[in-house]
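TODO from last week: model Cytochrome P450.
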Amino acid sequence: MRGLLSNYTRQRNLPASALSHIPGNDGRFLVGHSLDFLADPLGFARKTLAEHGPISRTNFLFQRRISLISAEANEFVLLDRAGNFSAYLGWEPVLGSLFPRGLMLRDGDDHRYHRRLMQPAFRKEALAGYLARMNRLIGPVVSDWLARRQLKFYPSVKRLTLEIAADIFLDVQLKSEIDQVGQAFFDLVEASNAINRIPVIGRLFERGLAGRRRLASLIEQRIPSRRDGEGTDLLSQLCRAQDENGQRYSDTEIVDHLIFLMMAAHDTTTSALTTIVYALTQHPQWQERLRTLAGSVGLPELVHEDLGKLEEIDWVLRESLRLYPPLTIIQRTAVKDCEFQGVHIPAGTPVTVYPVATQRMAQWWTDPDTFDPERFSPARAEHRRHAFAWAPFGGGAHMCLGLHFAEMQVKAVLLPLLRAAKLSVAPGYQMPYQLAPIVRPRDGLPLRLSPTQS
């Protein structure tokens, strides 16, 4: 824990009496349950569920809150038919300074307007163009990985997904510029886990703010030339996007949206690819199944029409996201008094739901801690037992807009990698991982690659 002062305190902390009707406790003096949650979100959720049930009073990140741990709770909070909750108020304390006014930090009509204006940049035609750009970058990198034979996969794939994001989002291709974007972006994302948020004292957080300023400056410099251009990168599309009245995003809105989208796309894909590759080293039969598939689809290179032919990769991706969701929790704040399963939730209460826990509940999943991609096959379809038992991309109006982009990128990397290399780790190796702020290996995942053809 890097400090005890946080911008969480900008939002009023509820008095203990406000939630006294709900089972639970305030945790340790001053820090509450923060250390337990940050160290092991899944373990914390399971312990809380066992001790207090699916509706409990918890206290972490400097706020008393209600923890709702069930698929039914995911549906109630994320679908939010009655408009009980604010995503902005839920996420602002942790993301507001670093990713202000991103799509995840907007509510109601404002959120719908900005999402609708952005949607053309994620339609089939745009995605097909992004895929062509990905292919150009991925092939040489996979060849380099194979030549090295051993590498730490997480930082290697993180670099690749950064290059892809820089190219597709900003049309940045020069190594010096990519390095500049990469360092600024790394500082920004790391700062989202800083509890100490006072500049100078909170050096990690200050580096994040400085990284954001550098990214914003780089984007702002490019906006004038993209307003009337014909570029296919995401920045160009956001610059040209307009509503039915001809209104466009302001420069500030473009900067805010692009930085947030880069964070969401880059970190999610890096995490997913890492957990998939690790799973394939532990389950060689699945590695061979996907390699056989890769030998028959997407040749000479993957095109958008091929994506629907990769069903088994879809299963593996979904299973990896089930076991290791990039976002372990989803946060909201109640904006009016409401009730869930007979329990009163006062207005102003932070509410947290836990995909990391519901995605491993025996109520919905057979052998829930076991890697078993066929649970997503049409024959079993365990994910259909409850529409919100599997929610790594959220749900409702805030369902991840870049879902198909992320799935496409995972396939674009996996296919050439599996065609070229057999993937393995040292005998007996078990990946040590951290779940917060996003799933990643603590040791970078040392990976061995051997050519599939001698």
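Done. The chain has 15 helices and twelve strands.
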